[in-house]
Structure formats: C-alpha cells, structure tokens
Design brief:
Elements: E1 3-9, H1 10-19, E2 21-26, H2 34-37, H3 44-47, E3 50-56, H4 63-69, E4 75-81, E5 88-90, E6 93-94, E7 99-100, E8 104-106, H5 110-114, E9 119-121, E10 133-135, E11 137-139, H6 142-149, E12 150-154, E13 161-165, E14 174-176, E15 184-193, H7 212-215, E16 225-229, H8 232-236, E17 239-241, H9 248-261, E18 266-268
Amino acid sequence: MSKIYHYTSIEILALILSSHKIRFTRLDLLDDMLECEAFPQEAIFLAQSIYASSWTRDSEENIPLWKMYSSIDKGIRIAMPEDLFNHYIIEPFSCSNHGISKRLISPFTKEQLLYNGEYLITNIFNKERHDFFKDVTYINDVKSFYQNSIHMLQNSQTGLCDIRIENYWDFGKYKEKKWEFQKESRFVLFTKKLLPLSHPLINENIQKQFDPEAISHIMPNDKKYIDVEISDEAFKQMEITLPPCITPGYRIIVESLIKQYNPTAIIHNSTLKLRK
C-alpha cells in the first residue's frame, strides 16, 4: 500500500490521535488565496462548497514543507496509507424526491452523506474519476481554467443567471506553478448546502430538503471544516517522523501521545541535519 505524508504541528497530531479524524478545510480558507480568487465572483459559492485535506506522495523530507506547515523543532510529519478512510457501502435506493442509482463505497455512512441536516456530500468516490483523491497539477493560469469551466447564463424567463459547470470533478486539482515545490496530493470533498431544517419550506422535515423548490437554492457552505474518520486499519499503520531539530521535551510529548493513543504507530527520526 502506497504511503502519503502530511506535515503538521504536534498540537494537530494530538487532535488527530484523540479523535481518529482528519480535518478537511474549505477551499477559500487554504493558504493559496488564488485558489479562491480564480473563481468568477458570481460563482464564489463553489469555492465555499469544496473542502480539501493536503498531503504529498513524496517520501523525501521537504524542508519548505517542514517550515511552512510544521516546524523544524516542534512539528511532525505523519505517514499514512493512501487508503486512509472507512469503506461504507451505500446501496442504490429511490425515494419520492431523491435517491442513488449506483452502489457507492464511501468514507461516510448514508446518514452522514445525505441526512446530516446541513449539506450533501456529492462525491461518487470513483477512483477512475479521481473525484476524491487527486494529485495536484501545477499550471500557469488557474484563473483561466475556472473561467473556461464555469459559465454564467442569463435566463430570459426569470431574468436571473443560471450556471453551467464543466470539469466539476477537477475543481480543487489545479494550482499555480509557483506552488510546484509542494508536490501536493489532496483529498477533496464536494458539498451542496441545504436549506436549514428551520426554514419554512422544510419545517423540520429532513426529507423536504430534497424537494425541487428547496434543493434549487444555491448558497455557500458556512462550515469551515469537515472532519472525516480514519479507518482502524489505517490508524494502526501510522508513522511519525520527528522534526530535524526536536528538543528532548517535545520528543517526550510525541512519544507520550503515541503511547496513549496509538501504540502500534512507528516513530522515526528525521534524516535531515539542520541548524536551528
């Protein structure tokens, strides 16, 4: 099983270990501001409906990643199997106003995917389509990609703008070439914000969130993060690389966290020799 790597702080390691979850961050909150600014202003809600968790396939320690997302003395690098999340089987079903036509193998339960009361997760988790895990492609002009993929069309009957989207599953895949040093791969979640249960059209009936009049509402997802559970098997295979300049005290903290929450995890020393 191929491994992927994530540079972060010891504090975040503690949260991952104690919760057994990985946090996905909304696209407009990531450090590359151009990812959000590349979307047409009328379609900014799309960037506010996509979530990502950033990793790299590169097994070689990356000094810029240590310094940007971790710390050379107080951070860590997590290694995990690429097959990181649970596999829940969701069988096809049909209700009066919604359904699924094909079996899904999803990191979410049916309830989490469809009936959390706040949003839909619209991924189909198809490895051939790469709609969930993808290698970032670095290009010269990300803005042109989104401008060519998002079309705002004037509706002559309503006077409002309709939206037509191409290459939807490639959203979140492209970044400017100046970020190429990251060698990033990422998990990406696509969501559709639903009218709240308190809305008059819904009246606390979760099934009514799928009625055509309700689901046609377009709005950004107001959640900043989505936390996704790690599978037990992947959790046991966790490996931790300590930072190049770790102090004895922080080494004790990491070793104590591993001993308490994940005793099967393996701890490595950094292969880098840096002066702090």
